[in-house]
Amino acid sequence: GDDAQAIYSFRAASVENILGFPERFAPAAATVALEENYRSTQPILDSANALIGESARQHRKELRAVRTGGEPPALVAAADLRQQAEYVAGRILANRETGMLLRRQAVLFRNSSDSDLLEIELTRRNIPFVKYGGLRFLEAAHVKDLLSVLRWAENPKNTLAAFRVLQLMSGMGPAHARRIIAALAANGHRLAALSGEQAPAAAAERFQALCNLLSALNDPATPWPGQARRAREWYEPELEHLYEAAHVRAADLDQLEQLATQYPSRERFLTELALDPPNASGNEVGPPLLDEDYLILSTVHSAKGQEWDAVFVLNVTDGSFPSEFAGGKPAQVEEERRLLYVAMTRARRQLELVCPLRFHITQQPRYGDAHVYGARSRFLTPRVMLTLRESAVQCPASADAALAVAGTRIDAGARLRDLW
User: Would you say 301 and 335 are in contact if contact means Cβ atoms under 8 Å apart?
Assistant: First the structure.
């Protein structure tokens, strides 16, 4: 076994099984270091060797590449999570233009939710992908639930969304949901008429709150900013009894609410993030079509044993590598180091570690910029940094910046005077 790839303590697999093997079976046990590596180029192995060399307790080895050539891995600083997603999607397409198939590229991440914004960006750019180790963001049941509330408010005749939303409430079954939908149709699909319908006693209070919400959301005078938050406030009590690990799922709803602020209207938001009907797509990622090209998204745990020509690792910051749940526990922090080592050694030719600098705070005004700063992963020590080439994402931050790049002159003084 390889102690540097012992990353499954959550399945009760202990690194001590390998580290303590020679002592338990001494003197008969012998340690043989397999140091020839047939996968990665030497610059990638230099970074991986430097990273794992910081580990306090291990079977020491220095991987040597059989393959020649290659360039040092990149540590790329991005302004925030959105810029990280845009950068990675752009690099994937650039590789594709040079002849590297999508399925020879992979994006790895510590937590399944880390890929949420990237999945949206890939969908916008029509880049097909398959995700391993978690659900696609828009395929997660709780995300579908919240989007269904907004879809019903947008189109009162959407019986699929209505049927899903009504059954979110405890005590409301399919028969009651069909009766209410039929009554709504008889009243000309006027959402304001919903409050006159009789709901089961167990769901009466929550049903009235839903009627008030839908009536407000369907009112043309209600501005779009803040609607996603209002829908989420109604939905969160249901989230608690519908699903386990509700606090983890709530983080996805934070992300969805943040996404909603970047669209000019509810119609535009729902059009671009179209929700598949429940009978057309399941809550698990299905197998890819093997005769088509597709990008790989994967958690690091699910990527063990795999290899790709190009690998992009998201969120190489404290809080992801190591996980925020490993802080203060030396054994867990060491496992997180091994996890990053596994991610880096999946790459054959190209490795890029992406480090967002800012993380926006949720539940703020539409154009709010409240944020916290992230810290580069503590595993990227000075010794490791010597093996990396540092760069930053160079992207226009706005339409004005894009015009400036194109050579258009902007009179900033005149714009400031126009404010008064």
Answer: no
> Residue 50 above 90 pLDDT?
yes
Residue 395's pLDDT is what?
A: 58
pLDDT tens for 136-178 read 666 778 888 889 999 998 888 888 889 999 988 888 888 888 8
How far is it, in rounded angstroms, from Cα 131 to Cα 212? 38
Give yes or no for residue 290 having a pLDDT over 60.
Answer: no
- The 10s digit of each residue's pLDDT in 221-271 is 888 888 888 998 899 888 877 876 677 678 778 878 877 887 888 888 887
Structure tokens at 166: 């009504």
Give a three-class secondary structure readout of the chain. CCHHHCCCHHHCCCCHHHHCHHHHCCCCCCCCCCCEECCCCHHHHHHHHHHHHCCCCCCCCCCEECCCCCCCCEEEEECCHHHHHHHHHHHHHHHHHCCCCHHHEEEEECCHHHHHHHHHHHHHCCCCEEEECCCCHHHCHHHHHHHHHHHHHHCCCCHHHHHHHHCCCCCCCHHHHHHHHHHHHHCCCCHHHHHHCCCCHHHHHHHHHHHHHHHHHHCCCCCCCCHHHHHHHHHHHHHHHHCCCHHHHHHHHHHHHHHHCCCCCHHHHHHHCCCCCCCCCCCCCCCCCCCCCCEEEEEHHHHCCCCEEEEEECCCECEECCEHHHCCCHHHHHHHHHHHHHHHCCEEEEEEEEEECEEECCCCCCCCCCEEECCECCCCCHHHHCCCEEEECCCCCCHHHHHHHCCCCCCHHHHHHHCC
Planar angle of CA 133, 134, 140, nearest 5 degrees: 165
Q: What is the pTM of this model?
A: 0.64
